[in-house]
Amino acid sequence: MTAFSDSWLERFQERVNGDPEMHVVGDWLTAALSLTCGDRRCILRFERGALVEVISSPRLDARCAFGFRASPDIWAKFLAPDPEPLYHDFFAMLMRVPGFVLEGDSLVAMQHARALHRAMNLMRTVG
C-alpha cells in the first residue's frame, strides 16, 4: 500500500493546499493530527486549513491533538475510488468499523469536523 508513503503525503499536501473548498471550510482548522496505518505513523500540521507541514517519521517531541489509526486493510477500503458501505466516510467508520480509531482529543477533532471531512475525502484523489 502506497498510502502514507512520503511521495503520497507530498501529493496529498498539494491536493489539500490546492483545493478551493478546503480554503473555505478549513479557515478555522489550525491543529496537528496523526494518521497511523499499521506501523506507519505520520503527523499533519494544518494552519487555517492549509497543510503546512508533514512529519513522515515523527519522534516523541512531535505533538498532535488527535489522530486516526487503522490497519492497512481498513485504510485501503476507505481510500478505494468507490468504497463499500461503512468505508465511504470517516464518521461512518468511527461509528461502525471497530478497527478505525480516533485517538487523542475527540473534542478538537469534532470542532474541525467539516474541514476534516473534506481533507479525508481528498485522500481518495491522491491515488
Percentage of residues in helical conformation: 40-55%
Task: Return the string of H and E elements.
Answer: HHEEEEHHEHH
Decide which structural class fits the backbone.
alpha+beta
Distance between the termini: 10 Å
Could you tell me the strand content as a percent range? Answer: 15-25%
Shape: globular
Mean pLDDT score, rounded?
Answer: 94
Question: Rg to the nearest angstrom?
Answer: 13 Å
Number of helical segments with 4 or more residues: 6
How are the strands of the biggest sheet laid out side by side? 3-2-1-4-5
Largest sheet: 5 strands, mixed
Beta-strand segment tally: 5
Describe what you observe in this structure.
By secondary structure, this protein is of the alpha+beta class. The chain has six helices and five strands. It has helices at 6-18, 20-25, 72-79, 90-96, 106-111, 113-123; strands at residues 31-37, 40-47, 50-55, 66-70, 101-104. The chain has a five-stranded mixed sheet. Strand 2 and strand 3 (50-55) form a beta hairpin.
